[in-house]
Specification:
There is one protein chain. The mean pLDDT is about 95. Strands 3-2-1-4-15 form a 5-stranded parallel beta sheet, sandwiched between helices. It has a 5-stranded parallel beta sheet with strand order 6-13-7-8-9. The protein has a 3-stranded antiparallel beta sheet with strand order 10-11-12, with no helix packed on it. By secondary structure, the protein is of the alpha/beta class. The chain has 19 helices and 15 strands.
Length: about 500
């Protein structure tokens, strides 16, 4: 503990963001360049080096947070990077994308603002890359065993890197044309620039991991044949079966799932399109769904130059403080404002703006459309009708409202892995009662040598859980192949976040 009184003398301070009117005109990351390092050592000093650090419990990776906070406060960045990478394969991803349940579990957060753990994490990771501390770590020798990983999201990448470093020959199969899964095509560039992903993939290639992109296992390749070619298979295909909104008018043109819309915006930045096939430019947009994916849509819509935008959340507006039912150290449902919401609020303050960024307690009743024509045989969406929802889920009288909409984006979450495509049937896999892939305590399915990691088995979750599951599944595969393992297994398949 570098400064025993740091948490008493130093207030919580976040790095500055670029001005809204600047950042909505480009796709660069929101934080101001160079704004983090001048403040981060003092912020690390606020860590109390607790005897029982509950931040460890808040993070499923078991990150050694007090240790690398102390090292950063002493300007020992090399050892801080070593501590950070000991538990997290991709801290530059989590430092940008994780909602930081570790901060909600920070002991200081009992009665003060928490340590800025997430910002310290990303500062360590970025500085490690910039100083050349992150290098490939190929195995000393090969085991002679082979593993196929299906899916290249955070769970698949973590499993692949761990298994490659353990000496196994690993090939990652990805149905998209580039590796990264939702990190590549689901996460907007303004939240994480893809250069961070690309350099990690380069590191993994240098370590010996092979990538087979553009291969949809179960469709382009028989999954059973793939299993026969490898000694083990890890399924990390995510939970990409999206939730629907079965209300009248759903068939109208102009209503799209978020994961139809967001990848196209990312592909423009990859150079695949000059202009996305689905764009918000000049259109009146309604986003149905109040979660992170909805916020990603909001930030993307603003950058594409929508004429207006409204985001609907079926839940009531959360309070600003924890409730008695969500005590420390659980991750509370409180009112949070993302960078995209900040952008929408500031743009709404302009006299010429037509932005109503967030509407809470809103239930969509139906969509209204234009008359059918040759181009749109079912007609196109022109409005969304909603009603206010009470806390008990019932509608409130006199709360009906009509929103103009010629583009509607559905961001309602995901149910589990996709059922079509042949992967499940060809391997004889079963679904559990939640609609996710059934597995035992060692991440193994009923098919010999086939394991499941990440959202495909857990359901829709956070990036830290995906990486933790990838690491744990890798340990299970290593044990299956070698009889024992020294790889870490931070979580089990049935572990859950802390709740009251």
């Amino acid at each position: 503990m570098a400064d025993p009184k740091g948490f008493l003398t130093t207030p919580r301070r976040l790095p500055p963001r670029r001005p809204v009117d600047e950042r909505v005109r480009d796709w660069d990351e929101v934080p101001a360049p160079g704004g983090l390092l001048p403040i981060i050592s003092a912020q690390a000093d606020r860590c109390m080096d607790c005897g029982i650090p509950f931040c460890h419990e808040g993070c499923p990776l078991g990150n050694l947070i007090p240790e690398w906070n102390d090292l950063v406060s002493r300007d020992d960045w090399l050892r801080a990077s070593e501590r950070l990478h000991a538990t997290n394969n991709f801290p530059e991803f989590t430092g940008r994308l994780c909602p930081a349940p570790c901060e909600s579990a920070c002991v200081l957060a009992i009665n003060q603002p928490a340590v800025t753990i997430k910002n310290v994490e990303v500062a360590i990771a970025d500085r490690a890359w910039e100083s050349g501390q992150v290098t490939p770590k190929p195995p000393d020798r090969l085991s002679g065993r082979t593993v196929a990983v299906i899916g290249s999201g955070p769970a698949g990448l973590a499993a692949a890197q761990q298994l490659t470093r353990a000496g196994h020959t690993v090939a990652v199969y990805e149905r998209d044309d580039r590796a990264g899964g939702l990190l590549r095509y689901g996460i907007p560039e303004f939240k994480m620039e893809k250069r961070h992903l690309d350099r990690r993939l380069e590191q993994m290639c240098a370590e010996g991991t092979k990538f087979r992109t553009g291969v949809d296992v179960g469709t382009d390749m028989d999954a059973a044949e793939l299993r026969a070619r490898y000694d083990a298979v890890v399924i990390a295909v995510g939970a990409r079966s999206w939730r629907e909104l079965p209300v009248p008018g759903r068939e109208l043109a102009g209503i799209h799932q978020a994961m139809e819309y967001l990848p196209m915006a990312n592909r423009v930045l990859e150079g695949d399109y000059a202009r996305p096939p689905i764009t918000a430019e000049g259109r009146h947009v309604v986003i149905v769904g109040g979660g992170d994916t909805g916020a990603d849509c909001l930030g993307t819509v603003l950058r594409q130059g929508a004429a207006s935008v409204t985001q609907l959340d079926i839940h009531p507006r959360p309070g600003d403080e924890r409730t008695e039912g969500e005590p420390w150290p659980t991750y509370p449902k409180i009112y949070r404002m993302s960078a995209a919401h900040e952008e929408a609020r500031e743009l709404a303050a302009a006299p010429e703006a037509d932005v109503d960024a967030r509407v809470f307690s809103a239930t969509t009743v139906r969509f209204e459309g234009t008359a059918p024509d040759a181009e749109r045989p079912h007609g196109g969406v022109r409005a969304l009708r909603l009603i206010g929802a009470r806390a008990d889920g019932e509608s409130g009288p006199g709360t009906e409202r009509v929103l103009r909409a010629d583009l509607v984006l559905l961001a309602l979450g995901f149910r589990g892995p996709e059922r079509d495509g042949g992967l499940l049937d060809q391997l004889g896999l079963e679904l559990d009662e939640r609609g996710t892939l059934a597995r035992d305590a060692s991440f193994a399915t009923g098919a010999d040598g086939v394991f499941v990691a990440g959202d495909a088995g857990r359901g829709q979750s956070l990036i830290v859980w995906a990486i933790a599951e990838g690491r744990s599944a890798a340990a299970a595969v290593d044990r299956y192949l070698a009889g024992s393992t020294t790889l870490p297994a931070p979580v089990g398949p049935t572990d859950l976040p802390m709740t009251a």
